[in-house]
Design a protein that fits this description.
seven-stranded mixed β-sheet; Alpha-Beta Plaits; 13 strands; 9 helices; about 290 residues; alpha/beta; single chain
């Protein structure tokens, strides 16, 4: 049986769930998991279903039939093969904790993605990337060559057929053009101190202020720096007895975890953008377990 995912969004109205479930039943599909949410503030309905096509219909066949069944409506939908790995390009600078964490999760099957390239503006991680049999590209970025450098980055993304760019502590600001072209397909990670602790050494700033919580935020990248729709966040407690170095170590751990969870939600089609926010549905039953077994 073909395992598939259906995502739907549309303006709020009655009968949406009935329309979708009736269609799947008539098409010989058995629903395994369903999540839905009505965003009354933005007048938007969101739904995600995972199901099996017991009649053996392909994603393309179901898509064509669903379009015909909902013709004239304002539903935005997509069918996805649950087992198809999303192609991802990772971009990194000189902080390698998130990159190393993602490579490990990818290697053991905990993060089912296809890493098609790693791009960096430094050579620090060339060896570790190449040792994983992943193409590594070093593209230096300066004020003088930023346009050409970004054109080369996008050529790599395009040629690799990547569906997602992950900024794993990539310390260059992307242009508005890339942000718009890849809208909803670039995920970033940063410390949760913004805007309270901007600039250099945010953990040192937090230490000097005696904060009791540090954390990380993963979000979609937009033209507004570090203000895109938030996908995932987490915090860890700190005390007066810990040093600024402890803050950095704890912060790197939580950054890695938050970024991985955000990517996991995105690749399983559990994230919907609603205005300046996101709707993030919980993982389907056995989603993590099946990946560990794989």
């Amino acid at each position: 049986m073909s395992q598939l995912i259906l995502t739907v969004s549309c303006p709020v109205r009655t009968g949406i769930v009935a329309t979708i479930s009736t269609f799947l039943a008539k098409a010989g599909c058995n629903i395994h998991d369903s999540s839905q949410f009505t965003d009354l503030q933005n007048d938007r309905f969101f739904m995600r279903l995972s199901f099996a096509s017991e009649a053996g219909k392909t994603r393309e066949e179901l898509d064509q039939e669903f379009r015909a069944a909902t013709q004239g409506s304002d539903m935005v939908h997509a069918f996805h093969n649950a087992g198809e790995k999303m192609k991802v390009v990772i971009m990194v600078s000189r902080f390698g904790h998130c990159l190393n964490d993602l490579l490990y999760r990818w290697r053991i099957g905990a993060l089912p993605i296809d890493i098609v390239a790693v791009i960096s503006n430094h050579m620090d991680y060339q060896k570790v990337v190449v040792n994983h049999d992943i193409p590594f590209h070093c593209i230096k970025v300066t004020k003088a060559n930023k346009t050409e450098a970004e054109a080369e980055q996008m050529r790599i993304v395009r040629d690799a057929g990547a569906d997602l760019i992950v900024l794993a502590r990539y310390m260059q600001v992307l242009s508005d053009e890339i942000c718009q072209k890849m809208s909803g397909r670039i995920i970033n990670i940063h410390h949760s101190f913004l805007p309270s602790f901007k600039g250099a050494n945010p953990y040192k700033q937090a230490f000097d202020r005696g904060v009791k919580l540090i954390g990380a935020t993963s979000h979609y990248v937009t033209a507004d720096l570090d203000e895109g729709p938030i996908i995932e966040q987490d915090t860890v407690r700190v005390t007066h007895a810990q040093s600024a170095g402890d803050y950095v170590s704890l912060g790197r751990d939580v950054e890695s975890q938050v970024l991985a969870r955000a990517i996991h939600a995105h690749i399983h089609r559990r994230v919907f953008i609603s205005g300046d926010k996101t709707v993030v549905f919980p993982a389907s039953p056995n989603e993590y377990a099946s990946e560990r077994m794989g």
